[in-house]
Amino acid sequence: MNRLTRATAAAPASVGNVGVGFDILGHAIVGPVDRVTVQRIDAAEVRIAGITGVVSGLPLDAEKNTAGRALLALRGRLGLTHGFEVTIEKGIPLGSGMGGSAASCVAALVAASAVLEQPAPMDVLYQCAMIGESAASGAEHGDNVGPMLLGGLALATHHRLISIPVPDGLTCVLVHPHQILETKTARAVLRLPFELPQFVEQSANLALVLAGCYRNDLECIRAGLRDVLVEPLRAPLVGGFLPVKAAALEEGALGASISGGGPSVFAWCTKDRSERIAAAMERAFRGAFIDCDVWISPVAAPAAAVVG
After folding, report:
1. Which of 139, 194, 285, 308 has the fewest CB neighbours in a 10 Å radius?
2. In order of start, what are the domains of the chain with their CATH numbers?
3. Full-model pTM
4. d(CA 245, CA 255)
């Protein structure tokens, strides 16, 4: 019998979409985290007791909060008679393109699972995480919550969550400009339908990236890591994006694009080139008079986990 009634979990930041996998491909990074403490309570409800950290003004109403909505979904899926009290410590800024809204709900679910009589199955956690994420983005998509739950690179469809192997040493440089770009704003610029030739090219690029990961083929990844659908529409929303991307490619990055809805920019590269690429991307942002933070992380980064 599980006697634990309180647990804290940390969930990592993430790179959503990875350029070519809109709403279905993402990976965790080693960098900022959200920490959520969950206390099991007798009352059949979810309470948000407090929110601290780098974000202020988030809703305390559980249904409007990503962590709260995820735990409400968990109670419903598992038929729980007890409830949860939640405290959130935000380490990932919202509107950053780093999965900030997703991290809170994933950390809450991982912590809540630790205080259940039996841990919740991964598929239940994943479905509840997508429901939680929708409180912020307005849509259920798994490209951030999926890799946070699994770690590393994940293919995250609505019904399946699949871990994707990556070549040893594959590295991500993630640069976060001090700007805010809300997910709903970034999604609003995407015009539909796309032209069929663009769709075919993007499908081919996604296939090349996935094949390169499975075949340990960096040149295959390089050939495919080009977003021809979403990036052209979102690039004008990210100040300094084009010179930052160009700087990464000039230093030998396999590819670079907008992380999630932006404004953060990521580049995939080999580990030996990561420092030079990071420095070049930072210089390019600062050359556009934009301050930024930089992280270098393995693409195969750890998943969310109970801490302390």
Report:
1. 308
2. 6-162+302-307 (3.30.230.10), 165-298 (3.30.70.890)
3. 0.95
4. 8
